[in-house]
């Protein structure tokens, strides 16, 4: 039997089922950041001999591993942010935030770039400009660089008249309506934007700042296996067969062609995604520049802590207090879960 859940419902269902010892699925198809909760939802490591490791995109390995173990089998990759523009109006896109800041000085009444000011996944990309070498889950959010990230993000929101409640649908509509020249959005928006702009849809790298490239997080969809399923001899055989099937190159190629996914297989991607497929090729190239979502449990708490902190900063809390508050929230949540 196959059951469908929204992402938020699925996480809650798995946590509740594991704690109450109720029905648990044998296999679940989940976002890779779920793997950080493996101790709490009964996920089993997958035997490495069941995985075609040489076939995997390098970032796919990172998105599926916790420590030295594969806690999931990556199938599809993406969830990364990119810069979109209308080629009919903007033949050459900007490459630097300094250029966008200059446009705001020249035409302060305009929204030059739109992005979600409300979704912390968008905010997280800005940390790469001030902490370029540190994974998100290893950042200590009370340091000076993080304060600069917060101020920089908030100032861009102000300069582009986005307000604190503009989500990804709001920012996308600004771009579609021609009220913003550029848009930062994810690969999930490509279909809608392609329908609107057709061959005029341009895709570029996120703007750099002071010479430092801006890198979005990326994630994947992975198959995870529960411990109870893998301990059952009959189910173990069937699960191994399933994993063999979904790693088949013909199967992955079919899914790329039918659904425009980036697969976890480097070879399949390089054969199936060619430069003449302009949009899909650009999406893939931007994925290669992204940084994999960490799989530690700490990541699960960062989003809520950032959201609360950004809200308080917008309401007037000083930057030093805001970042200390964010750091304390993450530490408190982490200790509570680790001690449970």
Automatic annotation (TrEMBL):
<dbReference type="Pfam" id="PF13416">
    <property type="entry name" value="SBP_bac_8"/>
</dbReference>
<comment type="similarity">
    <text>Belongs to the bacterial solute-binding protein 1 family.</text>
</comment>
<protein>
    <submittedName>
        <fullName>Periplasmic protein that regulates MifA/B activity</fullName>
    </submittedName>
</protein>
<dbReference type="GO" id="GO:1901982">
    <property type="term" value="F:maltose binding"/>
</dbReference>
<keyword id="KW-0732">Signal</keyword>
<dbReference type="GO" id="GO:0042956">
    <property type="term" value="P:maltodextrin transmembrane transport"/>
</dbReference>
<dbReference type="InterPro" id="IPR006059">
    <property type="entry name" value="SBP"/>
</dbReference>
<dbReference type="GO" id="GO:0015768">
    <property type="term" value="P:maltose transport"/>
</dbReference>
<dbReference type="GO" id="GO:0055052">
    <property type="term" value="C:ATP-binding cassette (ABC) transporter complex, substrate-binding subunit-containing"/>
</dbReference>
<keyword id="KW-0813">Transport</keyword>
């Amino acid at each position: 039997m196959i059951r469908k859940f929204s992402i938020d419902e699925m996480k809650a269902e798995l946590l509740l089922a594991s704690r109450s010892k109720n029905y648990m699925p044998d296999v679940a198809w989940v976002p890779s950041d779920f793997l950080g909760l493996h101790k709490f939802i009964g996920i089993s490591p997958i035997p490495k001999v069941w995985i075609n490791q040489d076939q995997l995109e390098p970032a796919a390995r990172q998105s599926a591993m916790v420590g030295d173990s594969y806690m999931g089998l990556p199938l599809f990759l993406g969830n990364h942010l990119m810069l979109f523009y209308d080629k009919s109006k903007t033949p050459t896109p900007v490459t630097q935030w300094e250029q966008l800041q200059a446009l705001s000085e020249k035409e302060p009444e305009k929204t030059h770039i739109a992005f979600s000011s409300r979704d912390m996944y968008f905010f997280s990309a800005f940390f790469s400009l001030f902490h370029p070498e540190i994974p998100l889950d290893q950042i200590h959010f009370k340091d000076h660089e993080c304060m600069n990230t917060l101020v920089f993000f908030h100032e861009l929101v102000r300069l582009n008249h986005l307000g604190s409640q503009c989500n990804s649908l709001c920012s996308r509509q600004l771009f579609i309506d021609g009220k913003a020249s550029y848009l930062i959005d994810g690969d999930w928006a490509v279909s809608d934007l392609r329908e609107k702009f057709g061959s005029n849809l341009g895709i570029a790298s996120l703007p750099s700042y002071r010479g430092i490239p801006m890198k979005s997080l990326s994630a994947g969809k992975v198959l995870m296996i529960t411990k109870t399923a893998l301990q059952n001899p009959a189910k173990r055989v069937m699960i191994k067969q399933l994993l063999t099937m979904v790693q088949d190159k013909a199967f992955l190629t079919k899914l790329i062609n039918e659904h425009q996914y980036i697969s976890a297989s480097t070879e399949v991607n390089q054969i199936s995604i060619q430069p003449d497929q302009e949009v899909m090729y650009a999406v893939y190239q931007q994925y290669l520049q992204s940084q994999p979502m960490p799989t530690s449990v700490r990541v699960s708490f960062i989003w809520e802590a950032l959201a609360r902190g950004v809200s308080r900063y917008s309401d007037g809390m000083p930057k030093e207090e805001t970042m200390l508050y964010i750091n304390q929230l993450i530490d408190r949540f982490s200790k509570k879960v680790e001690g449970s």
